[in-house]
Amino acid sequence: MQSKISFKEWLAYISAVVAIAFSVLLILLPGTTPPSSVPDVVSPGQVSPGLPVRLKIPAINVDAAIEYVGVASDGSMDVPKGPDDVAWFRLGPRPGAEGSAVIAGHYGWKDNRPAAFDKISTLRKGDVLSVEDEKGTILTFVVRESRLYDPKADAKDVFGSSDGKAHLNLVTCEGVWDPVSKSYAKRLVVFTDREE
Questions:
Q1: Among 53, 115, 37, which residue's Cα sits nearest to residue 81?
Q2: What backbone phi and psi angles, to 5 degrees, belong to 61?
Q3: Domains of the chain
Q4: Which of 74, 180, 187, 190 lies at 20 to 30 Å from 154 by C-alpha?
Q5: Pairing between strand 86-89 and 138-149?
Q6: Which one, of 75, 74, 104, lies nearest residue 89 by Cα?
Q7: How many whole angstroms separate alpha carbon 157 and alpha carbon 53?
């Protein structure tokens, strides 16, 4: 015996499916939101950070230009074009704004050419890094912890936070190179907190 679905239940179901599909499209379509229109949550009296232009990590001699990226064709965060630069995920908050900003960099570039995040695994709790924005403002962040992830693991905590504070999470590859998948076995994330 089949149960009948009322018109209201059917309409609610269709509305939910449409809302989910629309949300997924906004997240997965590259280029849907230009960097300057990404909203930042700013506390009263706080100035919204400018667009990030440079990342400096003195402990590992990083001084890199920041590119802006969205989502790659496979649904993952895109990466910088070359080994020397890093890439800010422009669909999330700007570094220094409330939430978790994310910057990716390469590790283990081909032909043994150095890459920006080759030594990121050596960062320790308390190490300091900074982001310069387009206005010339320097924002300072302090390393809280590092974690390894499987490439297919749920990494919501990398891209989101709900504590009302500003974070910057640095993402790179780690582990052994797999020639079949053309990728490294793990993802390393360094979590940092904005220094006030």
A1: 115
A2: 55, 40
A3: 50-194 (2.40.260.10)
A4: 180
A5: unpaired
A6: 104
A7: 24
